[in-house]
Amino acid sequence: EDVDEAGGASKSSSKAKEAKGNVTVSVRVRPDVNGADSSRNDSEWLADGRRSLIAYRGKEAGDYYYDNVFTAHDQNAKVYDSAAKRLVRRVMEGYHGTVFAYGMTGTGKTFSMQGTATSPGVIPLAITDIFSFIRETPHREFLLRVSYLEIYNEKIHDLLSASAPNGGGAVQQEEIKLREDSKRGVYATPLKEEIVQSPTQLLRVIARGDHARRTGSTQFNARSSRSHAVVQIVVESRERAASGTSSQDKRSGIIPGGVRVSTLSLIDLAGSERAADDKERRTEGAHINKSLLTLGNIISKLSDAKDKNGNAADREGKHLPYRDSKLTRLLQPALSGNSLVSILCTVHLGSSANSGENLNTLKFAARAKNSIVSHAKRAEEAFSGGSQDPGSRVLLERYRVEI
Ligand code: ADP
Ligand code: MG
User: Fold this and answer.
1) Would the pLDDT of 306 be above 90?
2) Ligand 1: which of 26, 28, 29, 30 to mutate, most ligand atoms within 8 Å of CB?
3) Which residues face 65 on adjacent strands?
4) Is 104 annotated for ligand binding?
5) Which interval of the chain is the signal sequence (predicted)?
């Protein structure tokens, strides 16, 4: 195991990590109900944020090092800054990026991704950052589109579609399929994408999706813990025409550089716990486990590819079982190399009943750290040169974010 090497000495190696690391794996330990550090109540566990270490002294004892270990004292803002900010900014520069929250139900996935009014999570903080970046980059113009879907029992539901909140909610709508083409990669269709031009608008669209998710099920909590919630923000940008350029030139459409298209995916995964015993739960659980297991399988296979001969074909995903679940199929672009990935694993230590599940989460995180070899490259190449996507250009013309 080179676990220790991967995450050790967080301070001294942070520069090197930035240079080579397109995958960030973090573990967040949630506080106990009384606010206490949950790792302190249990002699089996020790969470050390400074050393990015979780030490386990139970049956399969081990020291687990990650890029970040967040303890009970760490706020959402710190989690965002250390585990997501860089990725979000890179998405604005044209790379694909995925943040996902992994862990058993009740460990803080939604708290970390959505946060609260006083302590906003990764999603609202990313939105703030996106618009800051746009303001700081006056020489480019940006177009933002957002979609919000849920994967439940291996079916995709559009949380922004008009039919979602009524007629029995998201359950009733037409089935959404995953397709693939050379230009867009893997995508869900028909899926509503909203064009947004301000942070308020973007937050409002996501709130609408959250609302649809709640009203679409009678038992929100049960369902939400068994479904994956996927927010995707597509960012298109291009150089603005130089200020000296005459309107004549603008009309002729001479714009330096291509249109960059990249996607930020923010994913609140289903609970990673094992299926309960009753029959319906078991079907749901089987689907959840299938997608999370496939995710784990892909990660470990990527690891094999890297360990043996760094086989590029495997890293590009040709032999990996992405198609085994909707989640991994949708995430294929994010995991097959052309993307930055940040995995936030949440655990609630201190309750020894959870030790097995927590250990599974920590192992998942450790495997991810050693395996995903991601060679991020800007999505611009595909769109540069003379053959820019005319659709993008028209949309950018009409809906670009004004600064
Ligand atoms: P999950 O989405 O993983 O099922 P939640 O995010 O809903 O878990 O968290 C479960 C409960 O614990 C919620 O009441 C949430 O507010 C609380 N919680 C989780 N993590 C933290 C944290 N780091 N600090 C304070 N409260 C937390
Ligand atoms: Mg949740």
Assistant:
1) no
2) 30
3) 53
4) yes
5) none
